[in-house]
Design a protein that fits this description.
23% strand; Ribosomal Protein L25, Chain P; binds S-adenosyl-L-homocysteine; 273 residues; six-stranded mixed sheet; 7 helices; alpha/beta; six-stranded parallel sheet
């Protein structure tokens, strides 16, 4: 099907006027008839399936049949589990993670969480987070608004490790495995699984892998006070991989953004062809 970028000025409600070279191409080169289907995009995230309604001299009038959802979502789902930080820092973390493309936002309470956890207040805060996230998704032209959860306990975070291809436990005391290494190893495993599946060995539709090999990645970030050794041991026992984000100690509100950027980069989700 033919596709054209049409300037915003040419869109009038359900009617689009194709002019210039595009109209010539459609009429003369493609020899389109009334009723021929064409996809138009305004180049800013709006796309429509249209049909030729009429020919008006050099121009072609198109009528919108259906608005199409443009998919700007990364193929890899990134879940961010972030220990509740002080004040309203989490608002910024959720906002930025949403802009960048995270799909699930999971706050949690850990041993060294500084803030007092108040379930009543949290429900109100969660509402506010959802609003911030929705607005961030709109401004980022995303087709999906990430889900923001109510705060979990550490135990409830640990179980998530079993639902992803890679569970990255950001730990400033881990200095051996980088995010890059951990992701590459996980990708190797995911690809092996996909191959096994293709050979009919493993029947797990959830482990289906996209082009870059990873379907879901979980990032876990601790509070201002960091994780305790007990928590680090539990993370490892649950199947999480302790990774370093470099030799500098990042603030809790910085770590998730660094990790998310790196994951998207490693999965070729930062644009280009
Ligand atoms: N209080 C600790 C630092 C905590 S930083 C200290 O002074 O040593 C808050 C969180 O950010 C950590 O729990 C970890 O999840 C993440 N983080 C910060 N810097 C990191 C790094 N270099 N590598 C991996 N994770 C890091």
């Amino acid at each position: 099907m033919q596709r054209y970028f049409v300037e915003l000025a040419q869109w009038q409600g359900e009617s689009i006027v194709l002019g210039g070279q595009d109209a010539h191409h459609l009429q003369r080169v493609m020899r389109a008839r009334v009723g021929e289907k064409v996809v138009c995009s305004d180049g800013a995230g709006r796309e429509a399936l249209t049909e030729v309604a009429a020919f008006a001299g050099e121009n072609v009038e198109l009528r919108v049949l259906e608005w199409l959802a443009v998919d700007r979502e990364p193929q890899v789902e990134v879940w961010i589990a972030q220990a509740l930080p002080k004040g309203d820092k989490l608002e910024m973390v959720w906002q930025k993670c949403t802009e960048m493309g995270a799909t699930r936002l999971i706050p949690f309470v850990s041993e060294r969480t500084v803030v007092q956890y108040d379930a009543k207040k949290e429900a109100k805060r969660a509402e506010r987070w959802q609003k911030i996230v929705k607005e961030a998704a709109e401004q980022a032209h995303r087709s999906r608004v990430p889900a923001v959860e109510l705060p979990r306990s550490w135990q409830q975070v640990l179980v998530l490790a079993g639902e992803v291809d890679a569970a990255l436990f950001c730990y400033e005391k881990a200095d051996t495995v980088s995010l890059k290494q951990a992701l590459r190893e996980a990708r190797g495993e995911a690809q092996d699984q996909a191959q096994d599946k293709a050979r009919g060995k493993v029947a797990d539709p959830d482990s289906a892998v996209a082009g870059h090999g990873l379907r879901r990645v979980l990032v876990v970030v601790g509070p201002e006070g960091g994780f305790s050794e007990k928590e680090a041991a539990a993370a490892e026992a649950a199947g999480m991989r302790a990774i370093t984000l470099g030799r500098r100690i990042l603030r809790t509100e910085t770590a998730a953004l660094v990790a998310l950027s790196c994951i998207l980069y490693e999965c070729d989700e930062l644009g280009g062809t």
